[in-house]
Amino acid sequence: MESFALLSAKPGLTLRAGPRLPLPRLRATRASLSPASSSRPAALQSPLLASRAPSSQDAVLGYGLLKRRSSPSTGVSCSAAAAAAVPQPPEAKKFLGVGLPTLKKIVPLGLMFFCILFNYTILRDTKDVLVVTAKGSSAEIIPFLKTWVNLPMAIGFMLAYSKLSDVLSREALFYTVIFPFIAFFGLFGFVLYPLRDVIHPTALADKLLAALGPSFLGPVAILRIWSFCLFYVMAELWGSVVVSVLFWGFANQITTVDEAKEFYPLFGLGANIALIFSGRTVKYFSNLRKTMAPGVDGWEVSLKGMMGIVVLLGLVISSIYWGVNKLVLNDPSLPKSDHKKKKKKPKLSMKESMKVLVSSKYVRDLATLVVAYGISINLVEVTWKSKLKAQFPSPNEYSSFMGDFSTATGIATFTMMLLGRIIFQKFGWGVAAMITPTVLLVTGVGFFSLLLFGQPLTPMLATMGMTPLLAAVYVGALQNIFSKSAKYSLFDPCKEMAYIPLDGDMKLKGKAAIDVVCNPLGKSGGALIQQFLILIFGSLANSTPYLGGILLVIVLAWLGAARSLDKQFSSLAKEDLRKEMSATGKAETAPLKEPEAATDVLVEQPNGTVASETTGTES
Question: What pTM, to 2 d.p., does this model score?
Answer without folding.
Answer: 0.73
